[in-house]
């Protein structure tokens, strides 16, 4: 399976020849004989042996090998990366789309593991775990007062399907300890956050990444929306960093007619592989709009490019990230892996949307941040397009290659998110943590309220906005929010709705005044 994802540098930032080099670092005699034919490869192998046998201090040569691998890959491109064993399992799990666990959303609040919300119909919810509970012990292992990292906590809560774990929890609302036995089960990691109606004719589907289950999740949501009679669909790919190319292709096939080109790839030998739509699309005639921003990358750009280049729908938002490289993952026996760029992909008109990376990986990944400074996120006229990379769609629309998908309808960031500081703030988890702590102080204030009553309550007060401003100051963030009061209040209300009522209610709040959604709906008038 080809892996086409924007692998962020915060996580860790070929060809058979590179595979041989890496293998030689932990070689067998047969490999040594082969490597003797190549001085450079043999030199690496001998150096590790010298360090192992002669160096004055004891050295973990595995760590040296990892540094060597990282250094080699850094000379190739920003998306050819090495993933150590400690991270590979988590990355693979996320892309698989599920794991075995107890089914809770939690975070470390002060020195305790606090349950934000048990996953609906999951093992913990069925066992009676409630939002606000603190997990004190897993079996006999103490969790409170230790400030354990999240990966250690996950390890305690995960296990084999069907195995039982006993939790000791403290329920603040009742001021008592409880022992709860929970059977671990498969917990889905959703890649489609929500599929819902915006009005009687318009459906909305939010995709957060392209994992193994994304097409199945998307198709299920689309089928339900079609049964409700939608004539128009909005696909939200904002902040979607990519994933598996095949999943994006399968989704594009739902909208394109038989034999329309979706994407093609070209490797170092110039060999081209084209992928066409089939005649089995379930939404080939309804209106389609795709929302993107500067963090939409990779597989997101394949889907957006296929829709745009085939004149199938409009792209709304801001220029996408600009990743047009295809990776193939190669696993090693120690649990690590290499993702190696093996091809470039091209949209149906023949454009590559890969942005330049000749100035190094650091500049490459910071390029999206620099769009604040050059004005591109505020004005479409500031987007730098290259006239020599101009292409035409079948209906004559001009599109550009050379660095991301340029939207058909531009929506500036200050309209969508307020000031630059607010835009960054709302992309973090701080709003969710604030809301949890507010509920933790007085969850009874919302007890018994239906959703409409909840909305009326939130609209009648500025108390939570004021408390959030104080919360930021307390946490060392000197941001003045008064100019962006309306949008901050909307995000606070949306997060309350999510934690109290569920994911769909978050989007019900957040999308009502969303500038990109308005841009789509205004086109229909």
From TrEMBL:
Q: Which molecular function terms from Gene Ontology are attached?
A: endopeptidase activity; serine-type peptidase activity
* Keywords in alphabetical order: Hydrolase, Protease, Serine protease
Record-level GO BP terms: proteolysis; signal transduction
Q: Name one GO cellular component term.
A: outer membrane-bounded periplasmic space
A Pfam family matched in the record? PDZ_2
Domain PDZ spans what residues? Answer: 88-143
Q: Which family does it belong to?
A: Belongs to the peptidase S41A family.
Stated name of the protein: S41 family peptidase
């Amino acid at each position: 399976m080809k892996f086409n994802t924007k692998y962020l540098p915060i996580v860790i930032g070929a060809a058979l020849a590179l595979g041989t080099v890496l293998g030689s670092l932990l070689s067998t005699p047969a490999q040594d004989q082969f490597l003797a034919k190549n001085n450079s490869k043999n030199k690496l192998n001998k150096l590790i042996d010298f360090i192992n046998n002669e160096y004055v201090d004891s050295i973990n040569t595995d760590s040296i090998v990892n540094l060597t691998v990282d250094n080699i890959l850094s000379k190739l491109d920003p998306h050819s990366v090495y993933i150590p064993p400690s991270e590979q399992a988590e990355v693979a799990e996320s892309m698989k789309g599920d794991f075995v666990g107890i089914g809770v959303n939690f975070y470390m609040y002060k020195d305790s593991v606090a349950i934000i919300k048990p996953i609906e119909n999951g093992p913990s919810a069925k066992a009676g775990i409630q939002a606000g509970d603190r997990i004190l012990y897993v079996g006999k292992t103490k969790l409170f007062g230790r400030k354990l990292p999240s990966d250690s906590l996950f390890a305690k809560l995960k296990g084999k399907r069907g195995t039982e774990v006993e939790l000791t929890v403290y329920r603040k609302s009742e001021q008592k300890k409880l022992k709860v036995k929970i059977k671990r089960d498969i917990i889905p990691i959703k890649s489609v956050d929500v599929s819902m109606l915006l009005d009687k004719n318009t459906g909305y589907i939010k995709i957060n990444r392209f994992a193994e289950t994304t097409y199945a999740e998307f198709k299920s949501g689309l089928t339900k929306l079609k049964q409700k009679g939608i004539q128009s669909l909005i696909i939200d790919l904002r902040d979607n960093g990519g994933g598996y190319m095949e999943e994006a292709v399968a989704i594009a096939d739902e909208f394109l007619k038989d034999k329309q080109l979706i994407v093609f790839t070209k490797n170092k030998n110039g060999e081209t592989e084209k992928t066409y739509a089939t005649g089995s699309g379930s939404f080939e005639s309804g209106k389609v709009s795709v929302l993107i921003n500067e963090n939409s990358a990779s597989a997101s750009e394949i889907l957006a490019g296929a829709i745009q280049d085939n004149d199938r729908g409009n792209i709304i938002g801001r220029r996408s990230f600009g990743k047009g490289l295809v990776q193939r993952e190669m696993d090693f026996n120690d649990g690590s892996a290499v993702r190696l760029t093996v091809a470039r992909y091209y949209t149906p008109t023949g454009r590559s949307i890969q942005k330049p990376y000749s100035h190094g990986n650091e500049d490459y990944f910071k390029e999206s941040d620099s769009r604040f400074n050059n004005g591109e996120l505020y004005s479409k006229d500031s987007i730098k397009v290259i006239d020599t990379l101009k292409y035409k769609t079948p209906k004559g629309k001009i599109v550009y290659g050379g660095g991301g998908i340029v939207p058909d309808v531009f929506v500036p960031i200050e309209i969508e998110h307020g000031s630059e500081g607010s835009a960054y703030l709302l992309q973090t988890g701080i709003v969710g943590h604030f809301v949890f702590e507010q509920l933790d102080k007085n969850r009874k204030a919302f007890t018994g309220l239906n959703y409409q009553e909840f909305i009326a309550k939130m609209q009648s007060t500025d108390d939570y906005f004021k408390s959030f401003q104080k919360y930021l100051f307390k946490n060392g963030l000197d941001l003045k929010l008064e100019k962006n009061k309306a949008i901050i209040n909307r995000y606070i209300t949306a997060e309350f709705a999510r934690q109290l009522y569920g994911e769909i209610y978050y989007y019900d709040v957040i999308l009502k005044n969303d500038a990109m959604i308005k841009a789509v709906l205004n086109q229909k008038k």
